[in-house]
Specification:
mainly alpha, three-stranded mixed β-sheet, 16 helices, 3% strand, globular
Length: 345
């Protein structure tokens, strides 16, 4: 970088370069385009290339997309938040209304549209959106004392907006307080008066506020810096039969499908017992594996390639967290719940 090149220009160029790399990767792996292009759009937003980011969201939402989206509501929410940031408020509001009307069963779309409303001082609408999300995703207020981890940003966001509106605590706020594990309480983190501290001339007040912000940032950094899951490769029965038929030497690695499934569960339990966090399972297919082998310049029969393939799938967002809840479908796709299948102790 030239000495007179502004740092922000270099950062923008790096984000654009990463976005273009992700676009190229999406072309090689169309089955992962949703994850890869969403990441690319995020980099373009950080570079200030919001129109280009919108074009990527439009590409994903196009009826001509090669692979159907797993979470179209999330892509629409991301598009709406981006549009609003560069002057397309009416279109953004229309998309947000559409997302809320579909009542998605995953928290991501709800959090993004609620935070977009919050960022533009639409606090009452943000509150209504967070509340609707909590109702759709958890049912009666405070009924579940241990909601799934992915639902917690909804409860925390709702708590924050209610503090800004001056609302008294309710059952969901109490639940959010109980789930929060940071050194600074949610009530203190979400205190509207904190913003005034940042304009204070009192060094003691400023130091106290900086300490609180550091504590809050530490929690976010911990979440954002989690490594990719330690992923174990799962071959469905038909795919495993095809793999072993095409590459007979792999039969020693996979004597039978039943043994393969038992090995997966045993390996994950052993990792969990050793304290390894963030475990996951990635589902393999023969065409995808062969394409990966070709990209690595290796033969699919090479056993050492299998863990690399699992790691690559995980890095592309294909891992499912393990273990599932006892009442959730088992990861092996048997049709039974995890508690009735591989989760039996």
């Amino acid at each position: 970088m030239r000495p007179d090149t502004p740092a922000e220009h270099a950062d923008s160029a790096a984000h654009v370069a990463e976005a273009e790399r992700l676009e190229r990767t999406a072309g090689l792996y169309p089955q992962d385009a949703e994850h890869l292009l969403s990441q690319a759009a995020a980099h373009l937003e950080l570079a200030g290339e919001r129109a280009r980011a919108s074009a990527l969201y439009d590409r994903l939402l196009s009826s001509g997309a090669a692979v159907p989206l797993e979470n179209p509501a999330l892509v629409r929410a991301l598009k709406a938040a981006n549009l609003w940031e560069y002057g397309h408020e009416a279109e953004a509001r229309a998309i947000i209304d559409g997302v809320r009307a579909t009542a998605p069963r995953t928290p991501g779309p709800w959090v993004i549209v609620a935070e977009a409303l919050e960022a533009h001082d639409e606090l009452q609408e943000a509150h209504e959106t967070f509340t609707r999300a909590a109702t759709v995703l958890t049912g009666t207020a405070g009924e579940d004392p241990e909601p799934p981890q992915e639902v917690r940003p909804v409860l925390v966001g709702r708590h924050r907006v209610r503090r800004m509106l001056g609302e008294a605590h309710d059952a969901w706020d109490t639940l959010a307080d109980g789930l929060h594990t940071g050194p600074v309480s949610l009530d203190e983190l979400h205190d509207p008066k904190r913003v005034w501290s940042l304009g204070s001339d009192d060094p003691a007040e400023l130091r106290a506020e900086i300490s609180r912000l550091r504590a809050e940032l530490g929690g976010y950094r911990q979440q954002l810096s989690r490594p990719f899951p330690v992923a174990v490769l799962h071959w469905p029965a038909g795919e495993l039969a095809e793999l072993v038929a095409a590459y007979p030497s792999l039969a020693a690695e996979y004597p039978s499908h039943e043994e393969h499934l038992a090995t997966i569960e045993a390996a994950l339990r052993e990792l969990a017992a050793s304290g390894t966090p963030n475990l996951g399972i990635v589902t393999a297919t023969v065409p995808s594996y062969e394409a990966f082998a070709a990209s690595e310049g290796a033969g699919p029969a090479e056993v050492s390639l299998l863990p690399q393939y699992a790691t690559t799938l995980a890095s592309r967002g294909r891992a499912r967290p393990w273990p599932p809840a006892a009442t959730d479908p088992c990861w092996c796709s048997s049709g039974r719940t995890y508690g009735e299948c591989h989760g039996v102790r």
